[in-house]
Amino acid sequence: MKSNKFFEMTNDELNIKLTELKEELFNLRFKHRAGQLENANQLNVCKKDIARVMTIIRQRQLGISAEPAAKTAKKAK
Question: Where are the domains of the chain?
């Protein structure tokens, strides 16, 4: 399932990812209108990723799901 990678992110990381995805969608739309986009399916994938991120953010605001614990540094052996 693709959305698992988003559930593992913290709220701050999700907000950053949302900003990046919105910028990517803007660029994809621009390329599509200019006729430079080879794979139009990229637009749909980007839109769905934005929806996934926004859903997870909203679930956490409502208390439906919890933010993952802080990532700890891996110990060197």
Answer: 4-62
What residues have CB less than 8 Å from 52, skipping those under 6 apart? 2, 3, 6
Topology at the third CATH level for domain 4-62: Helix Hairpins (1.10.287)
| Whole-prediction pTM | 0.81
Cα gap 66→21, rounded to integer Å: 22
pLDDT in tens, 17-75: 999 999 999 999 999 999 998 998 999 999 999 999 999 999 999 988 888 776 655 54
